[in-house]
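Thread title: Can someone regenerate the structure for this chain?

I was given the following input by a collaborator and told the matching structure tokens would be attached. They weren't. Posting the sequence so someone can regenerate them.
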Amino acid sequence: MKKHNPLTTSLPLLLVFMMVAVSLTAFAPPGAPPAAETPVATEQPALTAKDAKIDWQQFKGTTLNALVVKHWWTDAITPLLPQFEELTGMKVNFDVLSEDTYFQKAVTELSSGSSAHDVLMVGNLQVGQYMNSGWLEPLDGYFKNTQLTDLAWYDMEDLLKAGRDAGNLNGTQYALPIGSEAEILMYRKDIFADKGIKVPTTFDELYQTAKSLKTDQMAGYVSRGKRGLDVLWEWTGYLLSFGGRYFDENGKPAFNSPEGVAATELYAKLLNETGPEGTINWSWMECSQNFAQLKSAMYMEAAGVGPVVDAKANPVFGKVGYATMPQYQDKPVIPNYWFWMLGMPTGGKNKDAAFLFIEWATSKALGLPLSSGGSSPARTSVWSSPKILTWANPDWAKASLAALDQVQPKLVPYDRADFPEITDAISAELNNVQNGSKTAQQAMNDAAAAVEKIVSQSK
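Best answer:
Regenerated them for you:
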């Protein structure tokens, strides 16, 4: 197996956002250090695809098929597809699937070398497996082809560095980010105001507040419990913020440490004692629906879900407050994070044409149009634009930026080829804690033994 390439970032993510408008810098959500004042960016005239020195029509008549997930990025770009089709003379078909169905279909197609799709969305969970297995087409050669790329127009450096690193293995770029997210806390600001409750800044306060707000009609807290990526993704922020880690310095599983066990105990206690019935089977979709329908008072989730639940069509609209994750003792808050990316299967049959689509879809020119459609930005120029506040809830934008600054990418082993197996092994034991069949210590010990076996077989 190829060597793993840990995600690296030379500067804290906040430095990536140093051109954020002053209106964002005044915010210091609970658990986050105050942000330093930064200058307002002077905006340049908006770029368009027609500004690129590219013959967009060179593959006119080609039909591209893309495998994508039902997601806010998909919702945001779908109305823009006619612009690409007019620009290029190509036709784009989206095969939109739920996450679980997508994960299964993508692995089946990629591992068999299928040419059914020319482009696909790639998430952190699978990117290590895809890259290490040689299932994704390297993109570097396409960027060097001046017939396909205008590097000055595209501006690779404007893409979030952590997002670029997520799709890079041993210096080769395989996928490009389309959205950035980190864990944040959403809460019913109307209820908190009415009851005079302050937003929890510690995990103990989170639990006590959730208990006090739980009624027969409303849960105090909701979050994911479903086996697989759902429960593991949210639990990871607890693990890291409690001081636990996936692996120690020798590469041995370390999440069964006292810190990892304490994080697991609280995670299960919040769901079981303060959450709605049935969360052990809930993904982010069920949790979002629950919170949007006023059925829970607090909700820990990826920041990108914020604009989805706080939409005008939902009963919770206008009632949502946003903050970073709480803190455990004196340890730093370290939320989990997620990048969705775009890549090309090695088996694709229209690679040059597919690259043009990826270039367009991840370009600087499409940054603001996508974000205004509800997609979390993956470009610094969007986060730094005052225009983001013309559509985004300012508190959401501020909490999202603060959470992204707290992320420590190297602590989540997304780049491992065996991470999907690791995810399943740990999440199965998290469910055993939720259903009461094992203590947190027993479950984490068993998970550690299972992961150690997975790791030994992967070498």
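The two ends are 6 Å apart (CA to CA).
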